[in-house]
Design brief:
By secondary structure, the protein is mainly beta. It is 11% helix and 37% strand. Strand 1 and strand 2 form a beta hairpin.
């Protein structure tokens, strides 16, 4: 007399393998984290002034940071038809790029391309050697008459 098996050997093996895989997958899981990267320091005290040649911009940065390769300088002109409200977003455009020399901490630039009269806003953003931007500086306002 032969006995009949309820479960074939291969089915038992597959069930046990699935059970082991489910239990073996436990552990602490979470969303992926971006790799740690050093953030560039913020530009300090951006100031603007009207000069004969255009608009003069001056700013400083900590000398301890060697990751900054340069700065992008942005300009925005206030729209006369829109109400100029503090804190409202502005449309800035890049007007030039300034490269950093070793040990340089104070920067100065003259924007000769100011067209017409009005209120202009400037900001400066550092970037690293891979062109990754840092935090924006303060916005500096100048009135050209």
């Amino acid at each position: 007399m032969t006995r009949m098996r309820l479960w074939p050997n291969s089915s038992v093996f597959i069930l046990l393998s699935c059970f082991v895989l489910l239990l073996g997958g436990c552990g602490k899981k979470g969303p992926p984290k971006p790799p740690l990267k050093k953030t560039l320091p913020k530009v300090k005290n951006l100031q603007t002034a009207v000069v004969d040649a255009g608009v003069s911009l001056t700013w400083t940065m900590d000398s301890s940071d060697e990751d900054a390769a340069g700065f992008n300088v942005y300009r925005s002109k206030a729209q006369p038809k829109k109400n100029d409200c503090p804190g409202c977003p502005r449309d800035f455009e890049v007007i030039t790029t300034v490269r950093v020399k070793a040990g340089e901490t104070q920067f100065q630039l003259v924007d000769p391309d100011v067209e017409g009269k009005g209120i202009f806003y400037y900001k400066v953003t550092p970037f690293d050697k891979r062109d990754r931007p840092g935090p924006d500086s303060n916005e500096s306002k100048v009135i050209v008459e």
